[in-house]
Amino acid sequence: MAKTKIVSTDxxxxxxxxxxxxxxxxxxxxxxGYSAMVQKINRTCLKPDIGCFVLFDGGFSGLVxxxxxxxxxxxxxxxxxxxxxxxxxxxxxxxxxxxxxxVLGELMNQxxxxxxxxxxxxxxxxxxxxxxxxxxxxxxVLLSINTNLDRPQARxxxxxxxxxxxxxxxxxxxxxxxIQLHEFEQHEDFDPDDxxxxxxxxxxxxxxxxxxxxxxxxxPSDSDNLLDELGI
Length: 232
Hints:
DUF3334 family protein; flat; 2 domains; 8-stranded antiparallel β-sheet; Chemotaxis protein chec; chemotaxis; alpha+beta; DUF3334; CheC-like_sf
């Protein structure tokens, strides 16, 4: 008899960590890593220098918090925009700049979006997020979810940037388990860029074939050459 597959709260945390590293590594072209050890905590909070949080609900509810040090925030912000081709002299040099907060909020939106997509595929349950909130603070701010959680659990994970700057992810959610009842196929994601590139290649191939056919029609045949030689 096949062993029943069970997905726990910590497995969901691992999915979230993978989304964070995947999105940030792709966005910045720098390696982002996280600690193999996870800390159990009693509460979630925003901490200096930049704190960002987002709520999600649906199949299960929770709160995600990411606390960036000033150096980590600036490194990720500058690496992201530099990777997009923005000249270094046009980038902000202080973590308190509104642009830094806006970019980190955009990146967090992408991270949670990737996490939600993976939850839908792997756990077959929908969850929704609200708009991430980003704050530049110099004091700790306690956060709680405005809903009743069944046996709430909280975890903290340490992340490290390529330049060894630190930021922290905190997750608070229901203690839950997903039990797989039967086998199912996970649908692959479709990359819009790949689809557009495929269509462009098809159009180029069609145009190339049409040009080749036209060139073949314009090429004189042997009978035409003979008539020309005879002056007919």
